[in-house]
Amino acid sequence: MSMSNLETPKRSSLALIVLWQLVGEPMHAYRMQKLIEAQGKHRVVNVRSPASLYQTIKRLQHHGLVEVMETDRGNNQPDRTVYDITDSGRRAAHAWLREMLVETGSEYREFLAAVSMVFVLPQEETRELLEERAERVAADLDQVEQELESNPGLPRLFLLEEEYRRGVLQAELAWLRAVCADIRGGRLRWDEDWIREVGARFNPAPDDH
Predict the structure, then answer these.
(1) Which CATH number, 3.40.1160.10, 3.60.21.10, 3.40.1650.10, 1.10.10.10, labels domain 3-102?
(2) Running DSSP on this structure, what letter comes out for residue 141?
(3) Domain extents for the chain?
(4) Reported confidence tier of residue 102, pLDDT bands at 50, 70, 90
(5) 81 - beta bridge partners?
(6) Which helix (H) or strand (E) holds 67?
(7) Dihedral pair phi/psi, residue 71, rounded to 5°
(8) If 0-12 CB within 10 Å is exposed, 13-18 middle and 19+ buried, where does residue 155 land?
Protein backbone atom coordinates (compact mmCIF):
# COMPACT_ATOMS: atom_id res chain seq x y z
CA MET A 1 0.00 0.00 0.00
CA SER A 2 1.37 3.41 -0.97
CA MET A 3 2.06 6.11 1.58
CA SER A 4 -0.81 8.20 0.18
CA ASN A 5 -3.23 5.36 0.99
CA LEU A 6 -2.03 5.32 4.58
CA GLU A 7 -2.84 8.97 5.13
CA THR A 8 -5.85 9.50 7.37
CA PRO A 9 -8.84 10.53 5.23
CA LYS A 10 -10.99 13.54 5.91
CA ARG A 11 -13.32 12.71 8.75
CA SER A 12 -17.08 12.62 8.33
CA SER A 13 -20.04 11.78 10.53
CA LEU A 14 -20.82 8.62 8.57
CA ALA A 15 -17.19 7.48 8.64
CA LEU A 16 -17.13 7.94 12.41
CA ILE A 17 -20.28 5.83 12.85
CA VAL A 18 -18.90 3.14 10.54
CA LEU A 19 -15.64 2.86 12.47
CA TRP A 20 -17.40 2.61 15.83
CA GLN A 21 -19.80 -0.02 14.51
CA LEU A 22 -16.76 -2.08 13.51
CA VAL A 23 -15.17 -1.55 16.93
CA GLY A 24 -18.10 -3.53 18.28
CA GLU A 25 -17.75 -6.43 15.84
CA PRO A 26 -16.73 -7.24 12.25
CA MET A 27 -19.72 -7.07 9.92
CA HIS A 28 -20.88 -6.63 6.36
CA ALA A 29 -22.41 -3.43 5.05
CA TYR A 30 -26.01 -4.66 5.11
CA ARG A 31 -25.85 -5.58 8.80
CA MET A 32 -24.18 -2.24 9.51
CA GLN A 33 -27.00 -0.36 7.80
CA LYS A 34 -29.62 -2.28 9.78
CA LEU A 35 -27.81 -1.64 13.06
CA ILE A 36 -27.54 2.08 12.31
CA GLU A 37 -31.29 2.19 11.66
CA ALA A 38 -32.13 0.08 14.74
CA GLN A 39 -30.02 2.34 16.95
CA GLY A 40 -31.72 5.46 15.61
CA LYS A 41 -28.49 6.78 14.13
CA HIS A 42 -30.10 7.12 10.69
CA ARG A 43 -31.35 10.43 12.08
CA VAL A 44 -27.73 11.44 12.64
CA VAL A 45 -26.16 10.22 9.38
CA ASN A 46 -27.67 9.59 5.97
CA VAL A 47 -27.83 5.88 5.16
CA ARG A 48 -30.97 6.04 3.04
CA SER A 49 -28.78 5.34 0.04
CA PRO A 50 -26.70 2.16 0.51
CA ALA A 51 -24.23 3.59 -2.02
CA SER A 52 -23.10 6.28 0.44
CA LEU A 53 -22.38 3.63 3.07
CA TYR A 54 -20.45 1.43 0.62
CA GLN A 55 -18.47 4.43 -0.64
CA THR A 56 -17.52 5.39 2.90
CA ILE A 57 -16.40 1.84 3.72
CA LYS A 58 -14.32 1.68 0.53
CA ARG A 59 -12.73 5.03 1.32
CA LEU A 60 -11.82 3.84 4.83
CA GLN A 61 -10.44 0.62 3.35
CA HIS A 62 -8.39 2.59 0.83
CA HIS A 63 -6.75 4.51 3.68
CA GLY A 64 -6.05 1.41 5.76
CA LEU A 65 -8.61 2.08 8.50
CA VAL A 66 -10.83 -0.84 7.50
CA GLU A 67 -9.89 -4.20 6.02
CA VAL A 68 -11.68 -7.18 4.52
CA MET A 69 -11.96 -9.99 7.04
CA GLU A 70 -13.79 -12.54 4.91
CA THR A 71 -16.43 -12.98 2.24
CA ASP A 72 -19.63 -14.53 3.52
CA ARG A 73 -21.06 -16.81 0.85
CA GLY A 74 -24.56 -17.75 1.97
CA ASN A 75 -26.89 -20.24 0.31
CA ASN A 76 -28.87 -18.56 -2.48
CA GLN A 77 -27.71 -15.17 -1.16
CA PRO A 78 -25.33 -12.65 -2.72
CA ASP A 79 -21.78 -12.73 -1.42
CA ARG A 80 -21.27 -10.31 1.46
CA THR A 81 -17.89 -8.88 2.37
CA VAL A 82 -17.26 -8.78 6.11
CA TYR A 83 -15.15 -5.81 7.21
CA ASP A 84 -13.05 -5.34 10.32
CA ILE A 85 -11.39 -2.25 11.79
CA THR A 86 -7.60 -1.95 11.79
CA ASP A 87 -5.37 -0.56 14.52
CA SER A 88 -5.10 2.65 12.50
CA GLY A 89 -8.87 2.72 12.27
CA ARG A 90 -9.20 2.43 16.05
CA ARG A 91 -6.81 5.34 16.54
CA ALA A 92 -8.69 7.41 13.97
CA ALA A 93 -12.06 6.56 15.57
CA HIS A 94 -10.86 7.83 18.96
CA ALA A 95 -9.19 10.92 17.48
CA TRP A 96 -12.21 11.90 15.37
CA LEU A 97 -14.62 11.44 18.25
CA ARG A 98 -12.56 13.69 20.53
CA GLU A 99 -12.14 16.34 17.81
CA MET A 100 -15.82 16.38 16.82
CA LEU A 101 -16.94 16.76 20.42
CA VAL A 102 -15.02 19.99 20.98
CA GLU A 103 -14.64 21.70 17.59
CA THR A 104 -17.19 24.28 16.44
CA GLY A 105 -17.81 26.11 13.22
CA SER A 106 -16.53 23.30 11.03
CA GLU A 107 -19.69 22.93 8.96
CA TYR A 108 -21.21 25.34 6.43
CA ARG A 109 -24.93 24.73 6.68
CA GLU A 110 -27.18 25.49 3.71
CA PHE A 111 -29.74 27.20 5.93
CA LEU A 112 -27.18 29.65 7.27
CA ALA A 113 -26.14 30.53 3.73
CA ALA A 114 -29.80 31.08 2.78
CA VAL A 115 -30.44 33.24 5.86
CA SER A 116 -27.50 35.44 4.89
CA MET A 117 -29.22 36.18 1.55
CA VAL A 118 -32.89 36.66 2.56
CA PHE A 119 -32.66 40.37 1.77
CA VAL A 120 -32.98 39.54 -1.95
CA LEU A 121 -36.53 38.26 -1.33
CA PRO A 122 -39.60 40.33 -0.51
CA GLN A 123 -40.44 40.53 3.19
CA GLU A 124 -43.72 38.64 2.96
CA GLU A 125 -42.24 35.81 0.93
CA THR A 126 -39.41 35.51 3.45
CA ARG A 127 -41.91 35.35 6.30
CA GLU A 128 -44.00 32.70 4.53
CA LEU A 129 -40.94 30.55 3.83
CA LEU A 130 -39.69 30.82 7.40
CA GLU A 131 -43.15 29.96 8.72
CA GLU A 132 -43.16 26.87 6.50
CA ARG A 133 -39.77 25.91 7.90
CA ALA A 134 -41.07 26.49 11.43
CA GLU A 135 -43.90 24.03 10.77
CA ARG A 136 -41.40 21.41 9.62
CA VAL A 137 -39.13 22.04 12.60
CA ALA A 138 -42.13 21.70 14.93
CA ALA A 139 -42.98 18.36 13.30
CA ASP A 140 -39.38 17.18 13.73
CA LEU A 141 -39.51 18.27 17.36
CA ASP A 142 -42.68 16.27 17.93
CA GLN A 143 -40.95 13.23 16.45
CA VAL A 144 -38.00 13.64 18.80
CA GLU A 145 -40.33 13.97 21.80
CA GLN A 146 -42.10 10.77 20.76
CA GLU A 147 -38.75 9.00 20.37
CA LEU A 148 -37.69 10.02 23.88
CA GLU A 149 -41.03 8.98 25.37
CA SER A 150 -41.05 5.63 23.56
CA ASN A 151 -37.84 4.46 25.26
CA PRO A 152 -38.53 4.94 28.99
CA GLY A 153 -36.23 2.11 30.03
CA LEU A 154 -33.30 3.03 27.82
CA PRO A 155 -30.45 4.64 29.81
CA ARG A 156 -30.02 8.35 29.16
CA LEU A 157 -26.49 7.80 27.85
CA PHE A 158 -27.96 6.28 24.68
CA LEU A 159 -30.45 9.10 24.17
CA LEU A 160 -28.05 12.03 24.38
CA GLU A 161 -28.19 12.66 20.63
CA GLU A 162 -31.97 12.91 20.81
CA GLU A 163 -31.72 15.29 23.77
CA TYR A 164 -29.33 17.43 21.74
CA ARG A 165 -31.61 17.37 18.71
CA ARG A 166 -34.51 18.43 20.93
CA GLY A 167 -32.52 21.36 22.32
CA VAL A 168 -31.37 22.49 18.87
CA LEU A 169 -34.86 22.19 17.39
CA GLN A 170 -36.42 24.06 20.31
CA ALA A 171 -33.93 26.90 19.90
CA GLU A 172 -34.42 27.07 16.11
CA LEU A 173 -38.20 27.00 16.42
CA ALA A 174 -38.14 29.86 18.95
CA TRP A 175 -35.84 31.89 16.69
CA LEU A 176 -37.95 31.27 13.58
CA ARG A 177 -41.15 32.29 15.34
CA ALA A 178 -39.51 35.44 16.74
CA VAL A 179 -38.20 36.53 13.32
CA CYS A 180 -41.57 35.86 11.68
CA ALA A 181 -43.29 37.88 14.40
CA ASP A 182 -40.87 40.79 13.88
CA ILE A 183 -41.48 40.78 10.12
CA ARG A 184 -45.24 40.58 10.64
CA GLY A 185 -45.11 43.38 13.19
CA GLY A 186 -42.96 45.67 11.06
CA ARG A 187 -39.98 45.56 13.43
CA LEU A 188 -37.85 43.87 10.76
CA ARG A 189 -38.26 45.41 7.32
CA TRP A 190 -36.33 46.12 4.16
CA ASP A 191 -36.78 47.33 0.58
CA GLU A 192 -34.55 47.85 -2.45
CA ASP A 193 -33.73 51.48 -1.70
CA TRP A 194 -32.68 50.66 1.87
CA ILE A 195 -30.56 47.72 0.68
CA ARG A 196 -28.76 49.96 -1.84
CA GLU A 197 -28.11 52.52 0.88
CA VAL A 198 -26.66 49.90 3.21
CA GLY A 199 -24.56 48.49 0.37
CA ALA A 200 -23.13 51.90 -0.43
CA ARG A 201 -22.21 52.43 3.22
CA PHE A 202 -20.69 49.06 4.06
CA ASN A 203 -19.52 47.36 0.88
CA PRO A 204 -15.88 48.05 -0.09
CA ALA A 205 -15.23 50.20 -3.13
CA PRO A 206 -14.16 48.34 -6.32
CA ASP A 207 -10.55 49.56 -5.93
CA ASP A 208 -10.38 48.89 -2.19
CA HIS A 209 -7.64 46.34 -1.60
Answers:
(1) 1.10.10.10
(2) H
(3) 3-102, 110-202
(4) confident
(5) 71
(6) strand 66-72
(7) -115, 120
(8) exposed
Q: How far apart are CA 172 and CA 139, in angstroms?
A: 13
- Summarised one tens digit per residue, pLDDT across range 17-58 is 999 999 999 999 999 999 888 888 888 888 887 888 999 999
Residue 3's pLDDT band, with cuts at 50, 70 and 90, is: very low
Number of continuous H segments (helices) and E segments (strands) in the chain: 9, 3
Q: How far apart are CA 96 and CA 105, in angstroms?
A: 15
Among candidate residues 87, 26, 78, the one with its CA nearest the CA of residue 57: 26
Instruction: Let me know the angle formed at the C-alpha of 63 by 59 and 69, rounded to the nearest 5 degrees.
Output: 80
User: In whole angstroms, how far apart are CA 174 and each of 117, 139, 181?
Assistant: 21, 14, 11
